[in-house]
Structures are given as C-alpha cells and as structure tokens.
What does this fold into?
Amino acid sequence: MCNSKHYLPRRLHTENNIKAVKWSQDYLKADLRPYNIVVDFGCGTGETAAHIGSLEMFGPCQVVGLDINLEFIKHCTLKYRLNMVSYFWNQHPEDFVFLKNKVSIVTCFSVLHILPPTKQKMVIDFMKDILTHDGHILVLHYLGRTESCFQAYLEIHLQLQTKTKWRPYLNKHHRTLCTLESEAKTAASDLVQTMKKAGMRLTTKQELASSVIVNVNTIKTILSNPSIRRLEFGQAYDDIPVDLYGEFAAEFCELFKNFFIKNNSKFMMAIFQVV
Ligand SMILES: C[S@@+](CC[C@H](N)C(=O)[O-])C[C@H]1O[C@@H](n2cnc3c(N)ncnc32)[C@H](O)[C@@H]1O
It folds into this structure.
C-alpha cells in the first residue's frame, strides 16, 4: 500500500491526465459545493486516481478507481490504495448500485474511444446512473491516432522478437496531416453526439496540448528504469540488451515522427452534465 503523497510515479500519459484535471479544477471551482465521491472510470494502472485522491485535487473526498481488468485492480490496490483512494473490479456493474446518484464527479480518461458503440453506451449509462443530478462527467479524449499507436507498439514488439524491421508497416499506415486533422474534428464531434444520445449535455470543452515529450533521452530513461519500463512498455522490453537502448530509442522516435504521432499530442477535455 502507498503511504506517502510523494510516492506517485507518473507514466507518460499521467502527465496529460493531471493537466486535464487541473484545467477542470479551474472550471469547477466556480461551483463551490464540496464533492463527496469521485469515480475514475477505467482507472487502468491507477496513477491518476491516486493523484486526485492524495493531492485532494477536487478537495477532500473519496476517490474510487474502477476497471474491468482485474490485473490492473490488483496492481492499483497493492501500489496506491490509501484511506481516501480505493480500487474495485467492475466486471459486474450491478455490484455498484450503492453508488447510484452519489457520485459528484466521474473521470473517464482515454476509455470511450477504445470501446465499440454498444459498449460505449453501456459505459455512459453506468456513469450517468451513479452521478448525482448535478454531477459532472469529465472525458479525456485523444484526437489523434491512438488506435494506430497501439498497433505500432504491438508491431514493434513483434518485430523486435523476430528481429525484422518495421518500415514497410510504417509506410502502409502513413497518412497526411490534413487527413489526421479532419479525423480529429470527427472524433471530437462524435464524442459530443454519443454523449448527447445518452442524455448528457456538453457544458464546456477545451483542446489541450500534451505534455509528453518523446525524444531519445525520454525513451532511454524509461528503458533504463525497470519499474517505469514495465509500466510503459510491459515485460516484453526486459529482453532488450542495455547496449541497444540507444538504437531502440532512436528507432522508436523515428516511428513517432513517421506516424505523425506529434499530432496525437492533441487531446480534448470535455465536461458533461445530465440534461
Ligand atoms: C487506455 S486505458 C486508460 C487508463 C487510464 N484511464 C489512464 O488514462 O491511464 C483504458 C482503460 O479502460 C479500461 N476499460 C475498458 N472497458 C472498461 C469497462 N467496461 N469498465 C471499466 N474499465 C474499462 C481498460 O481496462 C483500461 O484500463
């Protein structure tokens, strides 16, 4: 269990999540009610909920991280559980009827875009159900090529194992910046429409730039620290020989450049309320 506010590792994307929370604090502070429960839906490896809770980013309140992946919940519980921060496996959403209409803020960071439409609807209905009538859902939505990034990670991993090169793969997935920008606009308006269909109205939104700086040094730093490396890349990268870190980092950065992943550094933070 984590006992100190100071032991809170930040994964690459945690920086973005915290930035998004800070922006929301400014918006929500006009609303001076004390918040009672904050749920981080799809909390993943738990760092964001741990920051929100231990730094009291929405004031003193209970923070509950929920995730469908039991391994993540075990990890979060072992590493970050505090008096005010707990984590639960929500394989069965009906287990959480006790939260019905009790939650002031639901954060949903980088979750909706990975779900198919039917699952999205179930998730939004669940979040709406646990929310107080005047509560807020905070959605962080990447506007770039997130899905392709995952494919790219996977592909690098596979190709590292087979020692092949991944340039043909990159070429196959290359798209122009113009296409990416129009995809970003569509992603933003799709989210608002999906939430609207589920009975949620957009109260405010903001595009934010990512704090993540991907360069050879950042990647080398991640590779050199076993616990951060596992958080970011999984165990697969344990096998890379230390003397190849530099080469791997350079290849990785080239991948980002080729994929226009810079463009992926744009994300939208949107705040919704029940209609
Ligand atoms: C891309 S990760 C984002 C994790 C975390 N929110 C963050 O920003 O670090 C998406 C997370 O959503 C979780 N997830 C997907 N479907 C879910 C569902 N129906 N209920 C709860 N969690 C879900 C996944 O297990 C995964 O941890």
User: Anything to note?
Assistant: The beta strands are 37-41, 62-67, 85-89, 103-109, 131-142, 200-209, 266-274. The chain has two domains: 12-144+177-210+263-274, 146-175+213-261. Residues 13, 17, 42-44, 48, 66-69, 72, 90, 109-111, 114-115, 123 surround S-adenosylmethionine (CB under 6 Å). The CA atoms of residues 103 and 131 lie 5 Å apart.
